[in-house]
Structure formats: C-alpha cells, structure tokens
Amino acid sequence: MNVLGGIRVLDLTTGPVGGLATMALADFGADVVKVEPATGDRFRSQPAAVFWLRGKRSVVLEPDEPGDRRALDALIDRCDILVVSSTDSKLRSMGCDWETASRRNRSIIHCNITAFGSTGRYAELPGYEGLVAAHSGRMAVFDGQALRTGPVFAALPIGSHAASQAAVQGMLAALWARDRRGGCHRVETSLLRGMLAYDLASLLIEQLRDSWPGEIPDPKKVGGGMPTLNYHPVMAADGRWIQLGNLLEHHLYAFLEATDLLPELLVEEAFQTPPASWSRSAVESARDRILARMRERKASEWMEIFRAHGGVVAETFLSSQQALQHPDLVGNGDVFEREHPRLGPVRQLGVLAQLDSTPGSAGGLPPGIGEHNEAVRAQWNAIEPHTATPAAGAASGRPLDGVTVLEVATIIAAPLATTMLADLGARVIKLEAIGGDPYRHLLPQGLLAVKTNAGKESLCVDLKTDAGREILHRLAARSDVVLHNFRPGVPERLGLGYEQLSATRPDLVWVAATGYGPNGPGARRPCAHPVAGAAMGGVVHQAGAGMPPVDCDGIEAIRDAARRLMRANEANPDPNTSVVLASAVLLGLVGRQRHGIGQQISVNMMAANAYANADDMLAYAGKPDRPTVDAGLHGLGACYRLYETADGWVFLAIGSDAQWRRFVEAAAHPTLASDPRFETIERRRANDSALADLLSAAFRERTADAWEALLVPARVGCVRVHDDPGSFLMSRPDLTAEVEHLRFGRTRRWGPLVVCNGGPDKLGPGALAGEHTDTLLEEIGYSPREIEELRAEGIVASEPV
After folding, report:
1. Beta-carbon-side half-sphere exposure of residue 454 (alpha carbons within 13 Å)
2. What's the CATH fold of domain 404-519+573-610+761-797?
3. What is the pLDDT of residue 671?
4. In this predicted model, what pLDDT tens digit does every residue of 172-220 receive, in sequence order?
5. pLDDT (average), residues 717-721
6. Taking a C-beta distance cutoff of 8 angstroms, is the pair 585, 417 a contact?
7. Were both Cys, which of 248, 320, 442, 625 would link to 537 (CB 3.0–4.6 Å)?
8. Structural contact between residues 651 and 718, judged by C-beta atoms closer than 8 angstroms
C-alpha cells in the first residue's frame, strides 16, 4: 500500500531542488513524469543526479513547438500536481503558470520552487544557493571561522534542502486539503524561504536589544568565542576528531565520568557547583584537562568507551562519503546499494522516513532522456482530464485546518517541525515538563524558544504521575498526530507508546523523532545537533581545506582548531531534521486520509542530515569528489565565491559560458573579455587561481551596491552580502509576520517556509510554557476546582509572564 499510489505528478523543474522534492513523492508511490528538453535537464551531469532522478519517468517536450505544446497541455489537464521552478513571465510563456493551469485543470495543485521568489528584483538571477545565502545574511553566521575578517562561504546547501522539503510539505498539505474540500491549490516556496528555518533568534534579537537593555545578547556574540564544554570538538591520540554534544548537565557529567575526569574535578572547590555556574578560570582549567585527556586514546577507543557508557553524546567527524558506511544508517536501512547499467553499484540514501503501514520504496533507476515518451502519452491520455467544478470560495491559506498535533518534545528539531505544521494551519498542543522545555532556559527570557513554539498552545504537566498521564491520554484521544523525541522505551514508560495510545485512537499518526533511529546500534544513545553535523559530513565540508587538522602542536593549537570547527558546526543539523520530520508527518496524514489507517513513523537526525548532504551522499566508481572550500573560506572557485569590494563584500556565481559573457559585457572589463584563458568554462577552471586574482582586483574598484546595481539587471549572479540575518529579515516584511507576544509585545516573527493559496491571514506568536494550561484542561473536561487542585499538587503549571 503506497501513500501516493495513483497520484500523477508532472515535474517541469530543473536541477536538484525540485528533483529531490518530486523524488520524495515518487519514493512514496506517485507517478512522477519529468518533462525535459531533448538535451535533458542541464543538471543531469551532476554526480547526485542519479539519486534525485530515481523512480521517475522522462518525456521530452519543447513547449515552443506547437505539437509539443498541445502534448504538454494534455498532461497538465490530467495531472494532480504540477511542479515548476521559474519566474511568472517564463511560466506564462509556457502555459504553465498558476492562472492558466488552474483554469484548465480544476483539481490541480500547482507548486513553484524558485530561488528568490517568482517576482521582484532578483527573480531573474540564476538560482544558485550561494547567492541566496549571501543575500540573506547566512554567510555572516560563520564569522570567526576563517583566519580573516569578513563573511564566510556557507558550504552546505541547507537552503536547497529546506526548500525541497518545504515543497513536499506544501504539496502534501494541499493534497490533504483537496481530498477533503476539493478545489485547486497554489503552493509557493523558494531557497530564500528555506533559509528562514535556520535563523533561530537573530530576527527577535534585532527587535529587542534596544528595548530590553542588559537582557538581550548581542547576536554577533551568540555562539561565538570558544565552544562550551558541552559542545566541544576534541582531538584524539591518532589525530582524528570527535564532536561532543552533551548539551544537558547530566550528559556533561556522563562524559566526565566516562573519561575518568569527574573524580579529580569533584575534589576541587572550583567544581563543587553545577557546571553552568563554574567560573571562567574553572571552565578553562576543565577545558585544558579535557583536551589533554582526549589525546591519551585513539578516537575508536574513546567511541567504544562512550557507546558502552550509554549516556555520552559524541560522534567522530566524517566526510559525507565516509558517512555512507555509518552503522546506524546501515542498521536502519537508510542507505542501500543498487546496480546501475553504466555506473555499476551505486550506494545511496533510502526514503525520507520509515512508515510502518504505508512504507516508501526507493524508486528504480533514473530514466533515460525521453525514455517514456510513448508510454506516458498513451497512459495519461487514456485518463479523463480534471474538469471538476472548483470548490466554493478560495482555497484556504491554512490547508491543515482541522488537524490536531500533540507534541511531547524538547529543544529544536521536533518542536520546530511542529511549528512548520502550525504555520500550515494545524492546531499544535505542546506538552512540556513542569519547568518547561529545557530550551527555554538557554538564553534570557526564553528568547530561543519563541521560534520553536510559534503558533502553538502549551500545557506544562508532570507525566511521571498518574494524573499527568491521564491528561496526556485525554489529549491524545482528540489528536490526529502525536509526535515525540524520546529514545526507544521511554514513551512506553510515560504512557505515550503507540500501542497505548492507538488503543483508543486507532487511526493515530504516531511519530518518533530520534537521534539514531530504532534499529541501529545507537538506537538508545542520546543525540544532539553537533554530533549529527559532524557524523554526516556537513562540518567537514563547511570547515574547508586543511580542516580538521590531523596534527596540532600543543594545547593552544588544539584549542584554536576546536574553536574554528565549532564555528563551522552551527545549529543547522536541527532544522535539517525539522524539515524532514514535518514532511514525514504529512506523509502519515495523507496516508490516513487516503487509506483510513494510522501508523508509526520514524525519522532520525542522522538520515535527515544525510539528506542535507544529498549533493555528495552517494558513492559509485569514478564519482567526482565533492568540491572543497578553499582554505580562506571564500568559496568553491573563482566563479563561485566571495569577493571584497571597496566597502563590503559580494558573492559571485557564474556557472555557464553565457553567464560569463553577460558578466564581462556588463562589467566592461576588456582584459577578462579578451583573455583566451577564460573563454570557456573548462579554461576558467584550468586557470582558476589567475582568474580569482584578477577578479579580486576588479571587485575592489567599486562598492558592493554598485556591483549589484551593475550586474543584477544583466541577469548576472552577483549580490551584496548582508552582514546579519536579523536586520535583513527586518527589511523584508514579506518574509515575516507581525504578532502580539505575551512577554515581548508587538514583534515580527518568521514567516512560513511554504505559502499555500496566498498564506494564512495571521500567524501565531511563540507560546510561553503552560500559557494555555487552564483552557486546555477545561476543554478536556476538568472543572475549575480540579484544575486548582492539579496546580496545587504540582501536576500542572505555567511559567510567570
């Protein structure tokens, strides 16, 4: 039984972003037909194309040809979902724009995935991730990683990852709404919207730092300097590095115990208080002892000790190629091998999530160009066009209206996923401990938790009591989805296991978000975002050439390398997981809608972050190496990198000879235009260093704004680098929404990653811990007196405003 069996998807996108989105639909049973020109998708030459083309059928159509245009129209008339990736003007010329397609097909779901949006100043720029990362302030996040001043190239394609998953979410939410209420649905997302997932606090800090003096940290200093002892890269005796992820106090103590450091620290007065209150000198003393102790054993020996202990959060730094052999990816079936007729055995990622009743299946081989021309036309033309009467009134900007999600989760990955569902219209109820989600206490005033609790209702309850578990069961009986992030075995002890809850709600969609998945050797190990980033190759890629070092001359050199590695390992692994988790929940909801069944779903951080490394997360003989970021952390080559200008920085992205010709013409640079070393893309690559030197000198002749004003109208990928994502977002009201927060008052919050039917009329603020405790208890049948008694006994609570 497939979630999407019988759903017809017409894919007119080019490249991996749309390709990954439609691949996910194909993996879960949709008939995905890729429309491409006779020369094929121009990104077929990418090593990862064999991955994101899998499971699809290919037809060749040239919309400018009258006969092909009629054939394309016939396919549009019969598809359920049309996926495109272009500007409105280009889509209109092809007859694939929303207005035209929805007039022809009264049940169509139209999804457009762009770089900057389909309209506006940057809409015509080539859709390179680097341009979006630079423009949105993303490249300022890594300040301090490079041994120079200025922005740092953002290597991991997280905008592409989030945009592809946002498209999946939007299409599945629209499908759920269409099956319930009918009508056409418009879905829009972009790499720029994808970037919204990764700003966890800068937008709010930008608004509050002046009005809350002394309370709000400087965004430039959040996460800066040396790593905390909890999140520390450490070097072992064999030169290999291990990333620690012991965020919570008991995990840090577990690490100190496993390394035999705890006894010697506890006898000293400086370490008699909890670690959060250790003095600066005590922290530095502990740091040096930790770094020295880790040099006493090989990385493999330490990891054996940590796994045996069971309470230590740690992983060895790996490249994405090495990660394909990670025992937990293997143990959970998140990687597999398939024979390719030309490439031989290809090792690649499996499906997004494990669904026990409607499982996905990684599709077959990638299609040849036009391989299915006759079969698709014959099969689809035999189907009646979608000419049903549209639903009365406009389709809702809240397609998940009517869905209730019960969240029992902490920190970022799972709570951020349910925020995405709330932005699509779901009602999300968060159950948290009496003291609140620990994430609320990591910055003053619960600042960090504003984003991860946006649009939700919150109830603080002690689930270790019978009365607390009764509250959980009453809420679960009214919920469509229950989502948690406990390790295996814990849900059952707390009364929220699948068998326990589905006994009263058989169609429940029960979702487990774990670190390592349920079936690998690490199933019961704790996990945190830095270890997923290190283990799946993202940090090694971001760290650049020469990192991590295999040899360091003394503790000071190790300290500096650790600092730079931690700057490279920022918070993206959590949102990387969140976007996959939200997609998985929607697969479960659509599966229930179409087949009438509930089920268990499992998503793990390792596999989700492998997807974020999808450009290199496959292996076959002769596969090109992943491009390495230069040691200066400028970029991947002369035509795709940061350049300093007369007053700031720009990012240049030129990927074709046509783009190069437009650049040299607009820049009016006679040396570059006439130099035979740079005539073709192959020659530019062969003379990369010389070209970088010439371009470096040229860009210093004008300001960043002047270069952007000169090159953007010529459709050349060159944008000014914004130095802070918070100030950038404050300049873009189209990407944010105004809300009234109970503590912070009128502020702007992050907008949705994907906009359906124009988006919701309003978005909710971040809930305080237990803000809705009384109203929720009353809703499920508790009297005012019973609520007062529950509060008096410490079974429920609310944080003070």
Report:
1. 33
2. Rossmann fold (3.40.50)
3. 85
4. 999 999 999 999 999 999 999 999 999 999 999 999 988 888 788 775 5
5. 98
6. yes
7. 320
8. yes
Determine the distance from the C-alpha atom of residue 321 to the mean position of all C-alpha atoms in its chain, rounded to a whole number.
20
Collapse the DSSP code of 565 into the 3-class scheme (helix H, G, I; strand E, B; otherwise coil) and give the result.
Answer: helix
d(CA 567, CA 550): 18
For residues 179 and 177, give the distance between their C-alpha atoms in angstroms, rounded to a whole number.
Answer: 5
Q: How many residues belong to the chain?
A: 801
Sequence-ordered strand ranges (E) for 272-322: 314-316
Cα–Cα distance, 386 to 104 (Å, whole number): 8
| β pairing state of 57-60 and 31-36 | parallel
* Residue 691, helix vs strand vs coil: helix
User: Which uninterrupted H or E stretch holds 280?
Assistant: helix 280-294
DSSP type of residue 7: -
- The packing angle between helices 280-294 and 555-568, to 10°, is 100
CB atoms within 10 A of CB 130: 24
| 534 and 202 Cβ atoms separated by less than 8 Å | no
668/670 Cα distance (integer angstroms): 6
Is residue 393 over pLDDT 70?
A: no
Cα dihedral 757, 761, 766, 770, rounded to 10, equals: -110
Q: Which of 521, 518, 516, 519 is nearest to 577 (CA)?
A: 516
The greatest distance separating any two alpha carbons of the chain, rounded to the nearest whole angstrom, comes to: 85
Distance CA 129, CA 503 (A): 46
Q: What is d(CA 751, CA 48) in angstroms, rounded to the nearest whole number? A: 31
Query: In angstroms, rounded to a whole number, what is the distance separating the alpha carbons of residues 645 and 50?
Result: 39
**Separation between Cα atoms, residue 786 and residue 792, nearest integer Å:** 10
Token couple for 286: 């502990």
Lookup: tokens for 298? 């090989």
Class in CATH terms, 638-727: alpha beta
Locus of tokens 């990764």: 198
Eight-state DSSP code of residue 367: P
pLDDT for residue 392 is more than 60 = no
- DSSP-derived 3-state class of residue 345: strand
Q: What is the pLDDT of residue 789?
A: 98
| pLDDT above 50 for 223 | no
Q: Nearest CA to 530 among 577, 578, 561, 570?
A: 570
Mean pLDDT confidence for 369-380: 95
Q: Find the mean pLDDT for residues 730-759.
A: 97
Say how far apart CA 177 and CA 725 lie, in whole Å: 33
For residue 148, report the phi and psi dihedrals to the nearest 5 degrees: -160, 170
- Residue 51, number of CB atoms within 10 A of its CB: 21
Residue (of 167, 234, 156, 229) closest to 194 by Cα position:
167
Mean pLDDT of 640-664: 97
In this structure, are residues 473 and 495 in contact, taking their beta carbons and an 8 Å threshold?
yes
- Is residue 423 within 8 Å of 455, Cβ to Cβ? yes
Number of CB atoms found within 10 A of residue 559's CB: 18
**What is the amino acid identity at position 640?**
Y
Q: Domain ranges in the chain?
A: 233-326+526-568, 404-519+573-610+761-797, 638-727
For residue 690, which of 671, 707, 703, 708 has the smallest C-alpha distance? 671
DSSP-derived letter for residue 766 is B
Task: Render pLDDT for 246-301 as a digit per residue (tens, 0 to 9).
Answer: 999 999 999 999 999 999 999 999 999 999 999 999 999 999 999 999 999 999 99
Instruction: Show the tokens assigned to 574.
Output: 């959590």
User: What's the alpha-carbon Rg for the chain, to the nearest Å?
Assistant: 26
pLDDT over threshold 50, residue 333: yes
Rounded CA separation 27/44 (Å): 19
Are the C-beta atoms of residues 513 and 601 closer than 8 Å to each other? Answer: no
Q: Are strands 745-750 and 736-741 parallel, antiparallel or unpaired?
A: antiparallel
Distance, in Å, from the CA atom of 567 to the CA atom of 147, rounded to the nearest integer, reads: 12
Mapped to the 3 state alphabet, what secondary structure does 530-587 carry?
Answer: HHHHHHCCHHHHHHCCCCCCCCCCCHHHHHHHHHHHHHHCCCCHHHHHHHHHHHHHHH
Any idea which residue has 């006894």 for tokens?
263
User: What is the pTM (predicted TM-score) of this model?
Assistant: 0.97
